[in-house]
Amino acid sequence: MFSHFLFFLLFETAQPSYGMFASVLPAEIVTSATAEVTATAPSLQQQNAPIKKTDSIGPVISAESVYAIDLNGGEPLFTRNVFARRQIASIAKLVTAMVILDNHNVFEKVIVSKNAATQEGSSMFLRSGEEITVENLLTGLLINSGNDAATALAEFDAGSESAFVSKMNAKAALLGLKDTHFSNAKGFDEAGNYSTAFDTMTFGRAAVSYPFIRKTVALKTAEVMSTDGRITHSLKSTNELLENPYFKIIGLKTGTTPEAGQSFVSLTEAPNDHEVLTVVLGSPDRFKETEILLDWVLRNFEFK
């Protein structure tokens, strides 16, 4: 079925290598700071937790930090360097979106500043002085990963991006993120802007509990307009695995900067109404390595 992964399947053996870490997330997780060390998985005493079919080596991927977890029961399926602090690039925009949705109605109107309209990097191509709804800015933030949208939303909410970042860090504290700090709303590389695969998994899990985020990150394309209908923004998702022929991927968020490298958080449907969240940080090929990780998870675990 997964013919283009056959090379990687040759690495499978009957020898035990990587184990699972038992958890009840977010506060009660039981894991090891040495992510490559094997640990057996004691009973979670939860119904419908995935069951490991066989012992096998882990997926052959090069990403520096990796997390795969069953969202239904909070069961870690694969881990690597989950507590290493790293730049996470635009994945941080999931927290930007949550802060906005916590504090605003999506129908509120925003006037785009020159500062927002001239942000570097990924963009939804806002214009200075344009009036646009919070809903449409969030759509551009999550689909196009618009840095202009992130700045416009931050300025609208708090008056300045620096003031908005304080709210992002307050949200991080509320979510129990111990190794996460934000210094901008976009995910730009900065010394004070970092997270870990573990914390990224935690806020990614929180993000998909927001109906607006869950719905929007599943869109391959969208078209939004200014409030007067004169300016149209055609959006195309940065998530290349949407509509993937092998996996039912339904989100979530990409990120790429020089220091973060290629990074990606994905949300994927698994058998029997399970969902798997994966985090791949610092990868040479985030989409292929996510496919390899998902292939390994779906072949090595039984989802009841």
Helix content: 25-40%
CATH superfamily of the largest domain: DD-peptidase/beta-lactamase superfamily
Structural class, by secondary structure, is alpha+beta
- Describe the largest sheet: 5 strands, antiparallel
Specify the CATH class of the largest domain.
Alpha Beta
Q: Count up the helices.
A: 9
Number of strands: 11
**Mean of the pLDDT scores?**
86
Explain this structure to me?
With 304 residues, this protein is of the alpha+beta class. The protein folds into 2 domains: 3-86 and 240-302, no CATH class; 89-236, Beta-lactamase. It has 9 helices and 11 strands. Helix 2 (93-103) packs parallel to helix 5, helix 2 (93-103) crosses helix 6 (161-174) and helix 5 (147-158) crosses helix 6 (161-174). The longest helix is centred in the C-terminal third of the chain and has 15 residues, at 286-300. The model is unreliable at 1-45 (pLDDT under 50).
Keywords for this entry:
two-stranded antiparallel sheet, 11 strands, alpha+beta, 2 domains, single chain, disordered N terminus, 304 residues, Beta-lactamase, 29% helix, globular, 9 helices
What would a concise description of this structure say?
The protein is of the alpha+beta class. The chain contains 9 helices and 11 strands.
What does the secondary structure layout of this molecule look like, with pairings?
Blueprint: H1 6-9, E1 51-52, E2 65-70, E3 75-80, H2 93-103, E4 109-111, H3 114-117, E5 131-133, H4 134-143, H5 147-158, H6 161-174, H7 197-207, H8 211-217, E6 221-225, E7 232-236, E8 248-257, E9 261-270, E10 274-283, H9 286-300, E11 301-302
Antiparallel strand pairs: 1-11, 2-3, 2-10, 4-5, 6-7, 8-9, 9-10
Helix pairs in contact: 2-4, 2-5, 2-6, 4-5, 5-6
